[in-house]
Amino acid sequence: MTTITLTIDGKEVKGEQGDTILEVCKRNGIDVPTLCHFDGLAERGLCRMCLVEAKGERGLVPACTTEARDGMEVTTENEKLTALRRANLELLFSEKNHFCMFCEMSGDCELQNLAYRYGMDHVRYDYSWPKLPVDATRKYFLFDQNRCILCRRCVRACEELAGHGVLGLKDRGPKTLVCADLDYTFGESTCVSCGTCLQVCPTGALVDKKSAYLGREIHFDRTKSTCTFCSVGCGIEILTRDGLPVRIEGDWEAEPSHGILCVAGRFEPLYEARKRIKHPMARCGSSLVEVSWEEALSLTAEAIKGVGGPSAVTGIISPRATNEAASAFKRLFDENAHSTTPPKTTAGDGKLSDIEEGDWIFIAGADLDEEFRVVSSFVKRAVNRGAKAAVSGSAGERVDKKAAKILAEDDVAGLEKLIAESERPVFVWGPATHPTVVKYLQGLKNKIKQIGLAAGANNRGLEKAGINPLCESSTREALYLLIADDVVSCEIEEKARKAKTLIIQSSYINEIAERADVIFPSPPWFERSGTYTNTEGRLCRLNRACKHPKGALSDEEIVDAVRRLLR
Amino acid sequence: MPLYRAHVLVCRGTGCTAGGSVEILEAFRKELADKHLEDEVMLVETGCHGMCERGPNVVIYPEGVYYCNVSPLDVHEIVEEHLYKGCLVERLLYTSPELMQKIVYYKDLPFYNRQHRIILRNCGFIDPENIEEYIACDGYQALAKALLSMTPDGVIEEVKRSGLRGRGGAGFPTGLKWSFTKKARGGPKYIICNADEGDPGAFMDRSLLEGDPHSLIEGMLIAGYAIGAKEGYVYCRAEYPLAIRRLKIAIAQAEEYGLLGEDILGTNHSFRIKLKEGAGAFVCGEETALIASIEGRRGEPRPRPPFPANSGLWGKPTNINNVKSYASVPQIILNGAEWFSSIGAARSPGTAVFALTGKVKNTGLVEIPMGTPLGNIIFDIGSGIAKDRKFKAVQTGGPLGGCIPVQMLNLPVDFDSLTAAGALMGSGGMIVVDENTCMVELARFFLQFAVAESCGQCPPCRIGGQKLLEILTRITQGAGKVEDLAMIEDIAGVMKEGSLCALGQGTPNPVLTALKYFRDEFEAHIIDKRCPAGVCTAFAPSPCRSGCPAEVNIPEYISLIADGKYDEALAVHRQSNPFPSVCGRVCPAFCEDKCRRGEVDDPVAVRDLKRFMADHESAPWVPEQLEPDKGESVAIVGGGPGGLTAALRLAQFGYRCTIYEALPKLGGMMRYGIPDYRLPKSVLDDEISSILRVGKIEVKTNTALGKDVALSGVLKEHAAVLLAIGAQGSHRLDIPGEELEGVVHGVELLQRLNSGEDMSFVKGKRVAVVGGGNVAMDAARSLLRLGAAEVHVVYRRERRDMPALTEEIEAAEEEGVHFHLATRRWRRRMISAEEERAKFHFLAAPTEILGAEGKVTGIKCQRLSLTDAHGKAEFDSSARKRPVPVEGSYFTLHVDMIVPAVGQTIDMSLLREEGINQNRDGTISVQPRTFLTSRERVFAIGDAVIGPASVVEAVSQGNKVAKAIHRYLRGIDPLEPAQFLDRPEPERYELNEEDAERPRAKTNILAPEVRVCDFREVDLGYPAPEVAHREARRCLRCDLETRE
Q1: CB contact under 8 A, B470 and A128
Q2: Would you give the distance in Å from CA A121 to the centre of its chain?
Q3: Distance from B498 to chain A by nearest Cα, in Å?
């Protein structure tokens, strides 16, 4: 990297060769106003807020797209620029409905902030008063064209970051509007509700319904954590107010997805409809009654002792459990500890970021539309930049549409041929990969990048802890089920029905709860802390965003307490 | 190769094709076959000739005979007469509007012979679908020269030295641009031709693509060789199907001939051209948007740098030029840089191609050397303004360009001069507008286009443009505010500084230039609630009414005349103008110039109808009193039409008035300036006495201000004073001999005649009248009637430049005033065509009055020319060429009386002492809209303020000043918001088929030989009421069209 020196606002500052003026300003703590700029998105220089004076340039130049050169003399603030920026803001305010007092984003809005910064206390231009539709057809968010400033961050984020490329623009001139697909409502469009657009919108045009009007940024606490809903392990920020989660946002800095989430990680957890288990409960005759933690623990220990100790109990643990819970579980049940995931496992030495580099992306045995949605963003992005995708069987309807080649599920020969043709092949394969393909891939070993997608969120962690998938033979009459906030599969339900002794650690009331002898409240995702190991083998940190109810124990604490009582 | 004795070139440009050239070609084929001439005559389909106005065009070689407005039905005659018998088909020849004569040869057409065709040299001359015709015209020779004898750097150097600048409009040096792309790192490199011509009214690129597609291909090939690109794209809008088809044919032919493809002409240079059809977005003419469009993305510009030369198509170094830039290159390579740079202007060498459209007589495609003055393009090549209306402005550079007003007609057309004027070279649209165009509406029209075509990315363009449009729309609809003008400039500034691309930066140009040069029109819309051009229907219920200075409700009284209700019609007329009898005879009838019926056939004869109703009034008119007596009095100095109107209105408002008139009788110039044969004194007397019937008006004749009464004295007696003193002084010729006996100034002559003085001294005299205005005509015609032996009119410009009313000039001519060498021998008017033409040689100026013994014996004149020794013309602020003396071209008219009539002056000597300021041109200086002079309580109107004008203009000012004085005396804000003109009540109005087809009725006119004997009225009016009624029914009542 070559260092360059330039003068900005009279100060000598340093930057790196290739930096834009804006980047140099950022490095040096000079705050240049922007609206259409968003870190990670391609610069368009269209909002004209960051126009600066640069000596020798014809007219004003946008700081975000203009490369800084050694010896450049730049002015970022003066009377003329201030007047121009204020006029620009006035134009934006006069274009549509930007009456802050009625807006959800008031206080957190970039447009509003700039208006304050530039002392825009009134608008000289006549308001245009357009009547534009509000699109509320999506369950989780709404789009209000009336507050849109057409900065196109959402359009670029949808294309460049999320890869879905659903959002676009229709018409031109003053009639220009952001639209989904060929001007459908969001609900009718191919939008997958990943919500990336919400997170980049500078105004109140794209609004999360759940957290709308629940407060401003200053009212919320933010906790960085990890999404617990699949093995990708996306970094999230949990926004809470008064001890309750109100919104989930992607963590732009976190591996592996850098802020991209899916509907299951961003919205669905906040719409949890199951009844929370808040206290330990124990069987009393035909019904369950609330008991103290001590009572529940001793009842559990007695029950286990009653059937002959941990070796006579089958321990089943959900991959929602943390590594710490898994270790405790393994310590308690040792060989009898099993996970709820299916027996087939997938593995690989590749990282999801390898998809960025590939020229051919192969996908097998995973529905990226439904199961590993964020992985579909990786694949779509690769296709958008010109890579080709090949699918064995199906990778979900939307991903299949982007694929250059669709092969039969077991067409190893076809795969072989394509892999041979490609320069930097990347293979993404999931739990449902056809056995012959699995065999082929195992044979390839390290010859190509392979990314195995594990079925459950912390499956890799459970594997590492030595917990194997449940097999038919290993079921005993006593069952200890650490289901956490997972749902109960039919298979487990079947086993639980047959069990004579049933201990459950669960966050929510579920189908088998009524059969339990003892129920421990397991902390749900926003109260859980610890670590996960994602499908790439990366250790991910979970942080509790909300306090436990008083006296409550974490999953590992419960298991450890039971173990202590059994000693 | 077969030889043909004749080639028939039929234009297949878009304009002519729309006019039926396909059918014409078919007809030729059939006729030639019928006459067995197929082997002798070759039929050629060509591209656009340029003169689309006269299409379809047919040119027949070897003679080069040009036939215009040809229809398929004419083909038989052309083949029969021209090709078979060798005779001309005269009726299809072009008639020059200037000389009114037929022009036979293509090369002699003023439209063509003033052009310099380099880029368009082959258009209309070769078959664009035949590569061999292009090759026969030196085609692909430049390519061979470049590939075989020049290095790529040598080619670039040659283009650089030629000084060629980008013909897309920005004018960036083409050679420099090429060198950037050549130097740029990375590859492959691309060449793009921008053929996304989207301006309304522009068709240069299209015509070139349609008429000579190979010149573009050759230019691109050379550019590809110079830059090191092997692939080129032509981005052409899909709305140009013929251009695309011909280009495809040309590409295929070039490939077939090995001129495109691998190893061209045996060298290792290879090049291919792909055609990309654009979807017709104006913004895709912007290079980065165009690139985005080729790449399959939304056509939107991006900030530059990086420039396409470094990061263009697919991020690779790319050179983009306009069609005309590439097409210029082969000629530069072939003829050398020096040849090219010797043409045109120093900093803008070469030629410019313009699509000349709008209100000019010859619209079409024009190629001129850079630096040609605007006026020459419009008035020489374009032959002036259609319908001989007044030139107002020309919009250059398309919707992002600007308008250039009449005072800038001498502006040389090149990149830098146009930009300095606030307009643009642009891609070369040139839209001429006349006096009937509203500049606010025109600016709004262009703005509407640019706003709709904005890509919508950046707020300054997207929202700023919309705001400007809202403001302009508001102004044209009558809701403009005075602050709007500052707001326009403010928003335009934000757009110019802040917009991302040239579209946004250029969008305010038409508005800004309109505001710069026509601010008074904007103010008229906002403050006066009037559209001077009569276009904006919010202000002008009908065009005629907006054309009338007094805003007489013409449609309404015309309808009343049609019903025979003359008294009611007169009442309507007198609300705005109390001189129906006078104006029915002498009004210039501005209304008729604007009449919409005139667009169909001829305008309604408003003036003749007015006279008819005035002549048929059943009872004397008594003006009604509108307001109670105010107990105040106003002095009016001058009893002409303005003073009388003001007195009438003030009396109606309840003021007592005293008219101080210097001469023995009231009437001013109506009495002392207009001879009886146009306005009989009895008619004037009746009109004045009916006005005085209002009462409250005291008349003091023979009372001259400054002589008999002093202004300060008058001010003591009256609450206010109105100066309506007219302009009775005469401009002097300022040549030797003006003091000789026998020199009588025009105004003085007429005044003496109309005062009843003995004029017998004129009898038998040979007289020279100097001047071309109405006074000159009145003097000349009166002199004939007084028995002058000869009357010469000496005028320094051409006939079409004469300010006098056309009908006056024609009448004078009929009566025997010959404008160069006049005699009374009207019976011998059947003179030869040569002499007829000589009569129009007006260009003469007197240099000396010759005399002997103190008396006039003759006048020495010098001939003038409209061009200087270098053939250059200079336009003055009236859009007329300024005459320059021709050295040594003196001639003498032997006359014994000289009547100079070259303008009137105002006698300000006494007023100046009284504290009345005057303007530089000698008129009294007054505040606009209030008519207040520099002295308190003193107002002024009429000829003394606006210079010599018509009765109706004086009446208009009389009406207005009466209101202003009324407001002043009542303490009301003089700038009280103006009122909209009232709208007609909804009514049933039906035209029948007969009305729609009836020609304009003519009045009875005395024969020249009868009328010239004495001063009896020449125009006898309509012979019968039915004639008038039927004429009145020709009115279309367009005022009803816009009613609520």
Answers
A1: yes
A2: 39
A3: 6
CB contact under 8 A, A62 and B499: no
Is B782 in a helix, a strand, or coil? helix
3-state secondary structure of A262: coil
Rg over alpha carbons for chain B, rounded to the nearest Å, is: 33
The 10 Å Cβ neighbour count of residue B30 is 14
Lowest model confidence (mean pLDDT) among A168-177, A539-548, B309-318, B881-890: B881-890
- Chain A residues touching residue B470 (CB < 8 angstroms): 126, 128
The ipTM (two decimal places) reads 0.92
Q: Which residues on adjacent β-strands are paired with residue A3?
A: A16
Residue B455 to chain A, least CA–CA distance (Å): 5
CB contact under 8 A, A150 and B457: yes
B767-775 average pLDDT score: 90
What does R_g of chain A's alpha carbons equal in angstroms? Answer: 27
pLDDT above 80: residue A140: yes
- The full 3-state SS of A527-544, as one line of letters, equals HCCEEEECCCCCEEEECC
The residue among A51, A125, A148, A167 with the most chain B CBs within 10 A of its CB, best to mutate, is A125
pLDDT at A496 over 90: no
Please check the confidence at residue B202 and state whether its pLDDT lies above 80. yes
A34 touches chain B (CB under 8 A): no
Q: CB distance from A3 to chain B under 8 Å?
A: no
Across the strands, what pairs with A428? A363, A451
Read off the pLDDT of each residue in B8-27 and give the average, rounded to a whole number.
91
Put simply, the answer to whether B456 touches A175 (Cβ < 8 Å) is yes
B454 vs A contacts (CB less than 8 Å): 172-174
CA dihedral of residues A36, A41, A42, A46 (deg, nearest 10):
-10
pLDDT band (50, 70, 90) for residue B126: very high
Chosen from A95, A172, A182 to mutate, greatest number of chain B CBs within 10 A: A172
Query: Cβ of A78 under 8 Å from any chain B Cβ?
Result: no
d(C-alpha B778, C-alpha B784), whole Å: 10
Q: A415 near A350, Cβ under 8 Å?
A: no
Contact at CB, A150 and B499, closer than 8 angstroms? no
For helices B554-562 and B566-576, the axis angle rounded to 10 degrees is 170
Q: Does B303 sit within 8 Å of A174, measured CB to CB?
A: no
Residues 108-147 of A with CB under 8 A from B: 124-126, 128
Q: Are B373 and B412 in contact (CB under 8 A)?
A: yes
Q: What is the pLDDT of residue A514?
A: 85
pTM: 0.89
pLDDT band at residue A491, thresholds of 50, 70 and 90?
confident
> What would the pLDDT profile of B879-888 be if each residue is shown by its tens digit?
888 888 888 8
Distance from CA of A117 to the nearest CA of B (A): 18
Task: Name the β-bridge partners of B848.
Answer: B860
Cβ partners under 8 Å of residue B285, min gap 6: B168, B194, B196, B197, B198, B427
Residue of chain B whose Cα is closest to the Cα of A91: B463
3-class DSSP assignment, residue A65: coil
Q: What is the pLDDT of residue B836?
A: 31
- Kindly report the number of other CB atoms within 10 A of residue B200's CB atom: 14
Q: Which residue has the tokens 């192969």?
A: A362
Q: Name the phi and psi angles at A475, rounded to 5.
A: -80, 130
Can you tell me the distance from the alpha carbon of B333 to that of B218, in angstroms, rounded to the nearest whole number? 11
Region for residue B827 given its phi and psi (left: phi exceeds 0; alpha: psi -120 to 50; beta: otherwise): alpha
Output the six-digit token pair for A440: 């082929």
Q: Where is mean pLDDT largest: A73-82, A544-553, B907-916?
A: A73-82
Q: Smallest CA–CA separation between B467 and chain A, in Å?
A: 7
